[in-house]
Predict the 3D structure of the following.
Amino acid sequence: MQNFDYQTPTRLIFGKGVVEQLPEVMAQFGKRILLTYGGGSIKKIGLYQKVLELLKGFEIVELPGIQPNPKYDPSVLDGVRLCKEHKIDVILAVGGGSVLDCSKAIATGACYDGDPWDLISYKVKAQASIPIVDIITLAATGSEFDPGGVISRTETNDKIGYVDKLNYPRVSFLDPTYTFTVSKKQTAAGIADAMNHTMEQYFAEDTTLLNDGFCESMLRSLMVNGRKCLENPEDYTARAEMMLCCTYGCNRILSLGNSQSGWPCHGIEHALSAYYDITHGEGLAIITPRWMKHILSERTLPRFVKYGINVFSIDASLDKWEIARKAIDETYAFFESIGIPMHLREVGIDDSRLDEMAHHIAVNEGLESAYVPLDEKAIKEILVASL
Ligand code: NZQ
Ligand code: ZN
């Protein structure tokens, strides 16, 4: 087992109606709030109105319109400017992972005098941040319990996972009822995203019985509860369990002591959504089974066998290679069964920029040190197989 140094400072407040506690929570951080949100879903579900009602005594400045795959320009830059102009004490992010990720970049950017991209691109280490509280309305990224924020810069096709301990939200409100309205497309993408977060930690060296069991249980729960959420979007129990699974996805709790895997599918997907602005979870679902096929070898076979038996209940008496291949087929079939388009062409990506993307990934994502190292040629092969 590898050494680790671990702390998650985020307070999770979970359950139906917990948002009633918002005023007392926000009061700990000050009076002036930057309220960040996306394209309007929080208005449709009545949450925007509820938040304003609860926070009547506070001074609220708004940053609306944060898009999926949140953009540095204008959203991060506008948020930083508003924080500085209004001397904001605390940011309240209400929405999906994109709103929260954008708020994380704003929080450190607002405490820095230079160009906030210096921080996101790791040129300069942030020294301070504005506290963040969030009400997450989409179960997927786990941003509510992790130190990452993924920011896109359109003109350079960059999509960077900006990770810093300062980015942990101070408090995350998780009320599963706010996810009842998430569309089938986004629910399926959320299932795929959280499943892939788990796989990125499961397919690694130095794993333990404890971590493997935790990951296998996550994967089974996401498949069972994810399906229930799709069949009945207002199934509270299923939405609640899916939400908690997603929350665990990126905060390292699934892989403490494991070797780092390099998160290869994320490295590849971030380029797809940077170049083509596709939905992150769909990109991952397309890449994952092709990546699995690519890395299956004598060395990785035992991992795939364990995965096949414990996650998909494949007959353990079968030949090991057969179990592994069936496990990969089952992975593909599950994503397809929840309605995810399983080819890049179906999400608008043809072969015209595959070379450019493979090069970009090879140069920027460090996948030469992944669980199974991937060079530019290997990345291109995975992309071609995904077309
Ligand atoms: O913009 P609005 O109107 O709010 O609509 C959103 C958006 O169109 C909608 N939505 C959110 N909550 C809803 C809802 N619609 C109906 N009812 C609700 N309750 O859903 C759409 C997608 O929202 P978005 O926030 O983009 O989705 P998600 O939470 O999946 O976030 C995706 C982003 O997170 C990054 C991805 O790369 C992508 O940019 N990631 C962040 C991670 C992290 N911070 O740890 C890890 C992930 O691996 C991922 O990379
Ligand atoms: Zn992800």
Observations:
- The first strand starts at residue 11 and ends at 14.
